[in-house]
Design a protein that fits this description.
Elements: E1 3-6, E2 9-12, E3 17-23, E4 31-36, E5 43-48, E6 56-57, E7 65-68, E8 74-79, E9 88-94, E10 104-105, E11 109-114
Parallel strand pairs: 2-11
Antiparallel strand pairs: 1-3, 3-8, 4-5, 4-9, 5-6, 7-8, 9-10, 9-11
Length: about 120
């Protein structure tokens, strides 16, 4: 499956951004997001099953990010109260889980949070 991410950009600390990811075909696997900051390893951010079932978040984003998945092909990540440490390239992925590497990756979208 191919994953197409969009929605990154530049925002001031405390602001909000919304990322979207569309899969090229129907999938029942979890869809979600990872991110990679400069000089750091890629890390899990959030994931959800169909209809946002089983939404899972990294501790660093709980209470600030909300994942939603209302179709089998699309997942969104609403990011609020952004911090400079959220600056990273965000990757859509599937299956998405903190416990394993995904089989499929999107191309990445850059989120920059200025202080």
């Amino acid at each position: 499956v191919q994953l197409q991410a969009s929605g990154g950009g530049l925002v001031q600390a405390g602001g909000s951004l919304r990322l979207s990811c569309i899969a090229s075909r129907f999938t029942l696997n979890t869809l979600g997001w990872f991110r990679q900051a400069p000089g750091q390893e890629r890390e899990f951010v959030a994931s959800a099953g169909w209809n946002t079932a089983g939404a899972t978040y990294a501790d660093s984003v709980k209470g600030r990010f909300t994942i939603s998945r209302e179709s089998t092909r699309k997942v969104d990540l609403q990011m609020t109260r952004l911090k400079p440490e959220d600056t990273a390239v965000y990757y859509c992925a599937s299956p998405a889980s903190p416990a394993r590497n995904p089989d499929y990756w999107g191309q990445g979208t850059l989120v920059t949070v200025s202080s």
